[in-house]
Amino acid sequence: RTGSPCLEIEGLIHDVGPIAAEGGRMKRVLAGVDLTAYAGQVTVLLGVNGAGKTTTLECAQGLRRRTGGFIRLLGEDPQTAGADLRARVGVMLQDGGLPPSARPIALLKHVAGMYRNPLPVDELAERLGLDQFSGTNIRRLSGGQKQRVALAAALVGRPEVVFLDEPSAGLDPQSRQVVFDLIHELRAQGLGIILTTHLLDDAERLADWVAILDRGHIVAEGTVAELLGGATQAARRMTVR
Ligand code: ATP
């Protein structure tokens, strides 16, 4: 892969606990994750529930303290960086992170007001089909509508890198297409996009690079074609005698 890295992770270890149900022991959630993401590319962390995708994103954003390893986000350590770095990074809040009594456009305008050079809120809202809900409280929106508000909030500050946790969750096929088109467009503008999914189809449609995470380890990585080619070859080896 070429270009400039926007995120470099080496040997990331993250332990949680002590866990009472496991006899007071610590639990190793990430056991040495290596991942590099580039500007102008979509890097996908693919894995089943519980693989450690969200934890990896949270460590990369400095929301969780790592137990070990090295992380550079836009050249800085996210754990010690300040507001300057946060202003350059877009974060997609999950449902629970959106204030339920706010209205979508008002919330987006509020978020936009925190950045120096935000995207025009009305255009972004229209693009994501949110303009029709301008008078509706967030708590009354469907899961997919909330998901689009969260995506808009992550993008409105014109970030250089954005973390999207399961961006296609809860979206109907049409909204999914709208969101995917927007992701492609932002990638073409040079945004570094790191997203998680448990759907191979999302990876096939979006990824320049896929890293497969399983129980806290990256077990394979490459382009979709390389990974699927590899899977096909492995399947062939098992079936052709
Ligand atoms: P999902 O899509 O279900 O969120 P994920 O791949 O994002 O899956 P994580 O949320 O990163 O997975 O969680 C990885 C594992 O670590 C899970 O088994 C989770 O229960 C465990 N885990 C993470 N944080 C904690 C914690 N603070 N205490 C106990 N277990 C934790």
TrEMBL record:
Nucleotide-binding in keyword set: yes
Transmembrane segments: none
Signal peptide positions on this chain: none
Residue ranges constituting the ABC transporter domain according to the UniProt record: 7-240
Main localization, broad class: membrane
This protein's UniProt keywords: Antibiotic resistance, ATP-binding, Nucleotide-binding, Transport
Recorded GO MF terms: ATP binding
Subcellular location per the Swiss-Prot or TrEMBL entry: Cell membrane
Bilayer topology: Peripheral membrane protein
Record protein name field: ABC transporter ATP-binding protein
